[in-house]
Amino acid sequence: MTTPPTPPPHPRGHRAPRLARLFARGSWPETRRISSVLRKETVGGALLLLGTLIALVWANSPWADAYTRLRDTAIGPHALHLHLTLGQWAADGLLAIFFFIAGLELKREFVAGDLRDPHRALVPVVAAVGGMAAPALLYVILNWNSGGDDGDGGSGALRGWAIPTATDIAFAVAVLAVISTHLPTALRTFLLTLAVVDDLLAITIIALFYTDTLALAPLLGALGVIALFGLLVQKRIRSPWLLIPLALTAWTLMHASGIHATVAGVLLGFAVPVLGARSADATASGHQQAGQGTGHGTGHGMAEHFEHVWRPVSAGVAVPVFAFFSAGVTVGGLSGLATSLQDRVALGIVAALVVGKTIGILGATALVARFTRARLDPSLSWWDVLGASLLAGIGFTVSLLIGELAFGAGSERDEHVKVAVLTGSLLAATAATLVLRARNHTYRRLHEAEQVDADADGIPDVHQGSLTAR
What we know:
Layout: E1 21-22, H1 28-59, H2 64-71, E2 74-75, E3 84-85, H3 86-111, H4 118-143, H5 169-179, H6 185-209, H7 216-234, H8 240-257, H9 262-271, H10 277-285, H11 302-326, H12 333-341, H13 344-372, E4 375-376, H14 382-391, H15 397-407, H16 412-438, H17 440-451
Parallel strand pairs: 1-4
Antiparallel strand pairs: 2-3
């Protein structure tokens, strides 16, 4: 793999394009924030892996029936159409918190983060689109002849086209922690941003393509409640006694509308303001200070406050519990695994996660480099982009959710989907480990350079003396 050719020098008096380097180091405030987020996601990823492991062991033990009974236990009021199984509560309810955080994160990235600059946003956004389009296309190609009614409740194989499109950042970061690689900050930021854009596109796909019926009145009611929620948070009202009931009402109405209730989580996240008064002024002037921001109306605003409160709930409770109720598939040993992977849906998912994701992200990034004449940051190589692309093939949380929506929770094909998602994610993690570990000596050197603070002012020296220190 070679770096795209260096563009010729610009004539005297002409400026070079602003997008000069791909995967350049970001600003210190953004680097610090991304590091904090990923530390929390590492813990969440460990709990996710633990929940998955417990579910798999239990579902393949002599007590598998007890696991199934627990997952299928229904609770909730019939009158509100909320008499759901525990598995459904995890998928529809707890994941709404996960998508609320995704909405907050995406808005922060494009309002207060480095990605408010369209030139910086271009690479992860285009890579996210490529990383969703290529797996979907590969899945469709492999399942084209199975697109009709195949006896799976009238749901053809093509209904699963969106399953391999999402990246699970918690799972990916947990893999990084296990293999002990010092992935450069720029690549970590790229992965996180790509995963967040992934989540937005995934929830859009769920709303548009996996909504069978639509009740207009509850939908309008949900949007009205979300608008009221947004008005209150814009006025800096934080009372949980007021905001949580509004959020639950919006979720209930969205669920009643026929659109997947997690969509309410994303919309509520978008409604939260990102900047406080001082931050807005500083951002407008282009001189926001590294240490500014407390989340109390003077720094990054309400979004930082809500993210601080709810991210631990999402990473530590919502996602691991969902994994526990969704990953418990009875494999049946090697013969059962082979049987599941003979399903073309399963094969399509595995190929799309491992090959499609890699081609989509790597190819999209190369196209950005080709058509913008941008160069890869000198500290990195295209092998690093390949490793990150393979790591993005770890799909879990959203992939399992879409599998349930496509084929029905607990159906035979849904069981095959779970096996395929786990297999594909494991293969992608293994391939990424081989590539990234081979480059770990370079990453360790870059990591050490990023820690040097000779003047002991709390800001690493690499972030000073240039525009990145702003």
